[in-house]
Amino acid sequence: MAGASPAEAIVVRNLWQVFPRKEGISISSADVMDEQRVREMDESDDTVVAMKDVCLTVYEGETFIIMGLSGSGKSTLIRCLLRLVEPTSGEVCILGHNVTAMGKRELVQFRREKISMVFQHYGLLPHRTVADNVAFGLKLRGEPEESRKEKVTWALETVGLTGWGKYYPSALSGGMRQRVGIARALVMDAPILLMDEPFSGLDPMIRRELQDELIHLQRDMRKTIFFVTHDLSEALRMGDRMAIMRRGEIVQVGSPDEVVANPADEYVARFVSDEKEQFERGRAFIGSGPGREATACVS
Amino acid sequence: MFPETLRFHIAEPINIFIDGLIQRYAAAFDLVAGKILFFLLSIHRGLEAVPWWGYILLVFLLSLYFSRSILHSLVLASLPFFIGAFGLWSMAIESLAVIIASVVMALVIGLPLGVLMGEAKSVETVLSPVLDAMQTMPSFVYLIPAMMFFGLGKVPAVIATLIYSLPPVIRLTALGLRQVPKTVEEAALAYGATRWQLIREVRLPLAMPSIMAGINQTTMMALSMVVVSSMIGARGLGQEVLVSINKIDVGRGVEAGMSVVILAIVIDRLTQGLAKRLRPGE
Ligand SMILES: Nc1ncnc2c1ncn2[C@@H]1O[C@H](COP(=O)(O)OP(=O)(O)OP(=O)(O)O)[C@@H](O)[C@H]1O
Ligand SMILES: [Mg+2]
Hints:
The structure holds 2 protein chains of 2 kinds. By secondary structure, chain A is an alpha/beta fold. Chain A has 2 domains: about 10-95 and about 190-285, P-loop containing nucleotide triphosphate hydrolases (Rossmann fold, 3-Layer(aba) Sandwich); about 120-190, no CATH class. Chain A contains 12 helices and 10 strands. Chain B is mostly helical. Chain B has helices at about 10-25, 25-50, 50-65, 70-85, 90-120, 120-135, 145-150, 155-180, 180-190, 195-225, 225-230, 235-245, 250-275. In chain B, α4 (about 70-85) runs antiparallel to α13 (about 250-275) and α9 runs antiparallel to α10. The longest helix of chain B is centred in the middle third of the chain and has 31 residues, at about 90-120. Chain B is globular. The chains are: A alpha/beta, B mainly alpha. The interface of A and B includes residues 108 and 110 of A. Magnesium ion binds next to α3 of chain A. Magnesium ion binds near residues 75 and 196 of chain A.
């Protein structure tokens, strides 16, 4: 990240998300301006403050990692980027478009062209074949069948699933399903890739394999990747920069090495040390082989 | 004794109200009744055009296609044979015509209502208690409004059957749409599905098993109205049951009753087989 400052891909400004826990409660952007009110909502059982005043900038071509404990608001943040949930207050700008200000039509168009997303639980359509799943976004976009077919073949080949196109997702293992999820995202050729714990449900070997493949792909693609995980070793391997979230707030942003070396507060330190220990134990166990490679990737 | 002075009746005003309604909209009721009768008779004529062995063959082939078991299909296909052997074939066809006419109309009304109910919370709030009431009411009750507006005969029988069999398809369609996994819906939205695309490409196909179960139940409810609706002139197998009750002719009653059961079993198996075929991701 040397030289002239790179272009901003995702800019998040003062983003708040307060979920009502009961019906009939409505929260407006005025509520989050008032510190007293925020404290009330935080303590109340009727509301969940899932994101507090989140500000972030992600640059084009980088892999940006969000880490945090369960319930810290990572998924909420990634969903807000394409408004799968409506933020209570704040602004999201992606590639110069103000996403939070978009109308319905514009938003649909934006989702079709600029962003593709990979989900932890795959989110595949069980009633469609693998090939149709991969083609899903293209079909929504209205691409003709001919070019769809070509791109799907390419995408399946890229994720190593050549020949699996006619099967249904139920016939595939977890790792293969997530490959389909990745193929569905890649085939869109969108500049931004959102990934919400894409590898969390997979066993370590497969996870490792997919991480390596994604790193490999990213070397050529240079897409902007927004990647949620709660696995530090994954963050260290994949990330150019990372942010740590805690109870809806961003507590630290920096390169993975920086965060590990200089944790901003006790929470980050504890968080990182637990994970680091595990990571190191794992590396010692594996020995000099793949472990060394992993460090090479992040440095 | 309940004091004479506290007594009052609503029967008279209701009769007056209904009479007024019927007089004012006589033309409309006639028109609707005519259309329904025409629909019913067309179905009846179509059903009559098929020879008896045609039905047996059809049941066998459909069952074979759905179940892939020859033995199972042979047993199922042999059942309608007994209806004919009892001499009740034409009555069974008559009942079948009423059932098909009511089920088709129930689906035409019920499927869109079910989709609306599954999509809009407000529709559910209104419709839910109505469906609850409909399902707890005994089937005889439906004869009253049907008779009020359409008198005696086949048309009110179709109407009563239609109303009685309507709730399951509405409910199960709505339920099926509600049960679609949020993760799948979210993925479709993330890739730029519009609301309509979400319904057509994701929610309806995934709700299909539930919708088919609703169609199956609606058909079964229509079948169970066969005897009741013959009280207002539907004829068919139900009438045969009623006659044998009046004459205390147990044997004849059993034959007619068995024929109704056979109809039910065959239709149930075939619609369930179809449902299995339409299950997603097989
Ligand atoms: N739609 C919603 N309605 C109400 N509360 C919600 C909703 N979505 C999330 N929450 C709450 O917001 C908080 C943050 O949830 P979120 O899913 O963003 O966490 P996360 O960091 O992704 O956790 P995990 O690692 O478990 O996925 C949680 O307390 C959750 O219960
Ligand atoms: Mg999450």
